[in-house]
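Per reviewer request, we include the raw input and output of the structure prediction for the construct analysed in the revised manuscript.
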Amino acid sequence: MLRELNNTQIEALLKDQVTGRIGCHSAGVTYIVPINYVYDGINIYGHSAKGMKIDMMRKNPDVCFEVDSIKDVTNWQSVIAWGKFEEITDMTEKHIVLQKLTDRITPYIIDDSVTREHGFVDQESDVGATVELIMYKIVVDKKTGRFEGR
C-alpha cells in the first residue's frame, strides 16, 4: 500500500543517499540526470562541468530533485523536492561546498584514480584553477515523500 513519508523520514532519506536525480526544463525540453549530492537540511549541493544541465538551470532556475531507496518493487521510499538553482561563485563558499561533497562522496569511491575524473581535486587551492568545476545549490522550498513497504 502506498503511503506518505513524514517530515522526519523525508529528511532522513535526503541525508542518507548520495545519488539523486535533478530535473530541469528550458526552451520546451525537460532533462533529468543523476547527480552526486550532499544535503545539509536546508539546501542540496552539487557540482558539475559546464553542459546541458547547467545551461538549462541557468536559463530556468526552477528545478525538481528526486531521491529514492529501493529494496524491491514493493519495498521502497522516494522523496521529491522542488527549489531554485543557485550557482555558487564565491570562492570561500565553493571551498566549503567542495569539502562537504568530498567528505560525503569519497567513502563510496573504490578507485582513487576516479576522484580527478569526477571533478574532485588534489588540494582545495585547485578549485577554479586546474579544474573547471561549477558548484551549485538547490534552495529547497517544498518536499514530499512516498513509500511502499510490506
